[in-house]
Each structure stands twice: as structure tokens, then as C-alpha cells.
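Justification of computing resources. Each target in the renewal requires a structure prediction run like the one illustrated here; the chain below, 387 residues long, is used simply to show the kind of job we budget for.
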Amino acid sequence: MTADDSLLAQGILAARAGEKSTARRLLSQVIQEDPNSEAAWLWLSSVLDTPQGRAHCLRQVLALNPRNQTAQKGLAALEDAPPAPAIVAQTPPAEALPPVETKEPALVEVLPEEPAPAWQDLVGSQRFWQVTLLSLAVVASILVGFLLYAVLGGAFAAEEEPVAVVLPSPTPWPRGTLRPTFTATPTNTATPTHTPTITPTPTHTYTPTPLPTETPVPTDTPTPTPKPRVRRRSPTATPLPTATVGLPPLVRTLDGRLTLLGVQIAPVSVPAGQPYWRLIDARWEDGEQSGGKHSIYVEVLDAAGNRALGERVVVEWASGSATLVVKDVPPPELSVNFPMYNTLGSYSVRVLGLPSDRISGMGMGTIEAPNFTVHTCFYLTFRLATR
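Resulting C-alpha cells:
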């Protein structure tokens, strides 16, 4: 970048910042060094105050570039404006005239500079804004301090007000030091005055005289009948009831989440002494616990708790059913495995051959997403019981 380009850039920045005097000085130096600088003539026209000076600069721009639309519009606007009053220049004496030079006269002589207002220099200085920002910061700090004092001071006053009421002190006590406690002086208790009690005067009460009663007529005394003799017999031994040996009642263990899943259990109704299949255990595994599996696992046990091989389990859904046979599989696998493909509320399970409890509402999905096929598992255990 040349010196002229640097001066031109500085002049443009000064013109944009509103520093007309600085811009005129810098742009005039550029024109003195390079009279063919189109940008310098154009920007100089924007910082001059007289219409004649602006028109002169714009004509210089059009002389260098007749297609410059900015100069064309600016010159047209100046020509349409009303003419300024004519300025009559005094002609100096012939002997005082300076020698005429062939070079184009300098712009400084043609367009004299005008001093810029003092407030523009003040506002454009960096120190003015630093002092202004510092003053605003100080005022803001003072306001924040007053606000904190008002808030915190009011809180302290509210906390100390009950103490001031209970323990008044004639002199202020420094905050943060222990205050002496005052022991209340007991007041003298007045001696009770003896008040004589008035003895009530006995009042005569009326006692009614009982009327004479009739003498009861004596009744005939019944003749005693002889008591029959009781023959003593040897007591016979009464046979004790024999204890009936039965199976202990079967406890049903259910997962607490089944109700939230919409799973329902319908116990079968049978008469006393009737054997039936009782659901004794039902639990559920969510997507993380099932490990990607999505099946209903069923175990069927006889009355002794052994696997009831050959029994049949039926799984039912809206459009069909499947019958599965209890097989001997190695533990811990359950004997029946039915894979699920529908969501919650689709499947029900019971055991065939005898009356059986029925569990329904099973399927894939979770409590939060019951309508999505999230892989989950159900584990059911039926056992032969007697009502």
C-alpha cells in the first residue's frame, strides 16, 4: 500500500466518522499528490460545506469518469438547488499577485477549511468515552450497593425486631458479641384472704307416710316328689377324631408390575375337594431384563411339586390359539416356550385337562410404551391343587 492509498483510507474513515476537518485535510493531501484520484475527489465532495466546492469536486470526478452515477446524481441535485448568493472577490494589486504557475491550483486555496465544532472532537475522542463508561460503572455500583443494603438491612432488621421487643436495651450493643441475659425478678404473691363459708340452714323435707299393705294369703306348699336313684355306670371311652393329613395351602406370588401392564388373573371356581390347576407364580421381565427374548415361559407341576410331563398348555389370542405339551427340558429352562409377536393385551394362558386359573392381557411392550413391540418376557408356574 502506497502513502497516497494510506492517506486516502484515513480520509475515508474520518469522513465516515463525521470528522470533516480531518477528512478534508487528508483528502486534500491525496489530491495534491494525485489529482487523478477519483475516490479522493468524490469523498472530498461529501465533507465540504459549500455547494460550489461540492460541485467543483463532482465535476472533477465526472471529468475522470463520466459514468460515475454517484457524481452524476450529486451534481444534478446541486444544480436543482436554488443558487447561493454571489461572492465578490477583491482583486489584489498587480504587484502583489503571486507568479502564475502552470500547475493546477491546490484545492486548499480554492476550498478553505473550516474549523470543526469542539463537541465533535470531544465526542470523537477515546478518552471521552472511557471517562463516560467509568462514570456509568460507578453510578451502577452505587445503585447496586443501595439495593443490597435495602434488602439485607431489612432482613437483619426483621430478624432482630423480636429480640428488641423481648429484651430491650437502653444502649446499642455491638453486633456479633454476646448479650447479657436478664433474670426476671419474682413478684410477691399476695397472701390469700380467708373467706368464711356460710353453713347452709337445713331444710325440712317432707317424708310421705306409707299406706298399709294387704296381708298376703298363704299358698299351699307343694308335696316333694322322691328323686329317682341314679345308677352308676362305668364311663365308655369316646374315640378321638383322627387328624386329616392334607396339602398345605398354595401361596400365589405375583409381580407387582402386572397390574400396571394390564395383565389380569381369573381364578377358577370349583367345589370343595375338586382338583384344579392353580397359578402360583407370575413374573415379568422388561426389555433390559429379558436380554432380547420375547416369549411366554410356562412350568406345570403336579401336587408333589414335580414337573407334570405330558400335560397340555393352551395359549390363546384374538385370531387363534396354540396347544403346547409339557416337555422334559434341562433346568433352569421352563418346559413350555411360546414366542410373542403382538403387543400387550393379546395373549392368555391356561392348562388343559382340569379346571384351570387363567391369566390374560400379556404381550410385548412396557408400562411406558404399551403399544410398541418392545421385547419382554413372562414366566408362569401352574401347580395341581385341591380346593
